[in-house]
């Protein structure tokens, strides 16, 4: 222990307030926050509108023509619980036009093609019994939270679906799931179940949240072995879930994927390419934080969110900042009372820096307590820092993040909770 040399404590901030950098920081934390905001604004993507006033006249004509075609059908057609050709005396449902516009956009507003696609989708849903799949136990509980799962939402409210197939590099796991035709069919049904959960969480109304975000992890993915399954999944989703994905984020992308994408990129429309985001390994957290708040990004992707954390509602927001190469930042949490317990979580994208924590008493001449000895956090850190400390006297917690050994700027996030002493 050594006498504290930090500045005298300021008045206690709210527990979710941003910390102030101590005089030892080489750059202000506010500057880091501004940089993080600029990163977010750099994302170039404009989602399609479903508000009639925002649609060009040609799109509105195609929508009216599709409605007229559907009105000739003797049977009522409903997809995702949305009536697509309701009786003329039925009250209007604002969701109807949203779903019809999805089929039209999938076929570049060619009305007859969109009509044919819609009828095939309705027939497939009836044959597949898609409306009943949500209630089924398909025997893949151990894959949820690992292979395919809905988890949280992005900064604009879109539900996020994560996909990671690296677990199937294990031959026993591969055989258990894809060993024969029946197992493959059950897996495909389970994958549709995950997609249905995502769609059912959408609002499907003009101006609402009408699509999900897909995050696909390509790390260790056995490409050749999964070709049959991935092709079938892709075909099912393209044919039966039109325009249900607002953005596709590929993470842990190997070098050859980038080469492949650069080869096919000239053949993709600008609209399609605007939905694609590609992040190389080591750049995952920085990429995801642009679109998803850190407290909603799973821990395995550099975030703060654990699988069961969302069961009790939205988590406490994290404070975001960046650390420049060569910079050392101190996060100070002031106003801690004697007997209070402080719990904190901290994550840095890419890590590969030094981290430590100490408690500085408020009393003049007090001695600093080492709470966590300074240590090097490797790039491959599996979990965010999570720790707790009960103070015996008033003071402040100081977290140090030392990136002075690197030239690379890194995104970071942290949050804390203070439980005051009981009476």
TrEMBL record:
PROSITE patterns: CRAL_TRIO, GOLD. One of its GO terms (cellular component) is membrane. The keyword 4Fe-4S does not apply. Residues 136-309 form the CRAL-TRIO domain. Its main location: cytoplasm. Gene3D superfamilies: CRAL-TRIO lipid binding domain. Residues 1-24 are annotated as: Disordered. SUPFAM superfamilies: CRAL/TRIO domain (SSF52087), CRAL/TRIO N-terminal domain (SSF46938), Supernatant protein factor (SPF), C-terminal domain (SSF101576). CDD domains: SEC14 (cd00170). One of its GO terms (molecular function) is lipid binding. Residues 285-420 form the GOLD domain. Keywords: Cell cycle, Cell division, Cytoplasm, Lipid-binding, Membrane, Transport. Residues 1-19 have a biased composition (Low complexity). Pfam families: CRAL_TRIO, CRAL_TRIO_N, GOLD_PATL1_C. InterPro entries: CRAL-TRIO_dom, CRAL-TRIO_dom_sf, CRAL/TRIO_N_dom, CRAL/TRIO_N_dom_sf, GOLD_dom, GOLD_dom_sf, PATL, PATL1-6_C_GOLD. The keyword Transcription does not apply. Belongs to the patellin family. This is CRAL-TRIO domain-containing protein. It comes from Triticum aestivum (Wheat). The lineage of its organism: Eukaryota, Viridiplantae, Streptophyta, Embryophyta, Tracheophyta.
């Amino acid at each position: 222990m050594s006498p504290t040399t930090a500045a005298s404590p300021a008045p206690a901030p709210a527990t979710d307030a941003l910390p102030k950098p101590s005089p030892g920081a080489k750059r202000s934390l506010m500057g880091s926050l501004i940089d993080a905001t600029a990163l977010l604004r750099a994302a170039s993507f404009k989602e399609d509108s479903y508000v009639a006033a925002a649609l060009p006249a040609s799109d509105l004509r195609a929508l009216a023509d599709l409605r007229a075609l559907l009105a000739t059908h003797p049977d009522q057609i409903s997809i995702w619980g949305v009536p697509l050709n309701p009786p003329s005396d039925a009250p209007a449902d604002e969701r109807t036009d949203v779903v019809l516009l999805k089929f039209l956009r999938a076929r570049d507003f060619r009305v007859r093609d969109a009509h044919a696609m819609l009828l095939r989708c309705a027939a497939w849903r009836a044959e597949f019994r898609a409306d009943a799949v949500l209630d089924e136990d398909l025997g893949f509980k151990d894959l949820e939270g690992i292979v395919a799962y809905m988890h949280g939402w992005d900064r604009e409210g879109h539900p996020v679906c994560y996909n990671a197939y690296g677990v199937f590099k294990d031959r026993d796991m591969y055989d258990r799931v894809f060993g024969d035709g029946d197992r493959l069919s059950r897996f495909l049904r389970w994958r549709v179940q995950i997609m249905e959960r995502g769609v059912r969480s959408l609002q499907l109304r003009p101006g609402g949240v009408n699509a999900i975000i897909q995050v696909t992890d390509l790390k260790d993915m056995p490409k050749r072995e999964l070709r049959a399954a991935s092709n079938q999944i892709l075909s099912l989703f393209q044919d039966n879930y039109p325009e249900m994905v607002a953005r596709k984020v590929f993470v842990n992308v190997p070098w050859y994927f980038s080469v492949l994408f650069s080869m096919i990129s000239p053949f993709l429309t600008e609209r399609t390419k605007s939905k694609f985001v590609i992040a190389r390994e080591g750049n995952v957290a920085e990429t995801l934080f642009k679109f998803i708040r850190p407290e909603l990004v799973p821990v395995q992707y550099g975030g703060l969110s654990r699988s069961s954390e969302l069961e009790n509602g939205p988590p406490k927001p994290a404070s975001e900042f960046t650390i420049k190469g060569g910079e050392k930042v101190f996060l100070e949490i002031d106003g801690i009372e004697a007997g209070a317990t402080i719990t904190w979580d901290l994550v840095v994208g890419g890590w590969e820096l030094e981290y430590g924590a100490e408690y500085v008493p408020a009393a003049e001449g007090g001695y600093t307590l080492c709470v966590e000895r300074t240590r090097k956090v490797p790039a491959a850190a599996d979990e965010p820092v999570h720790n707790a400390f009960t103070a015996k006297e008033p003071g402040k917690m100081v977290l140090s993040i030392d990136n002075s050994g690197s030239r690379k700027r890194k995104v970071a996030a942290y949050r804390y909770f203070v439980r005051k002493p009981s009476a």
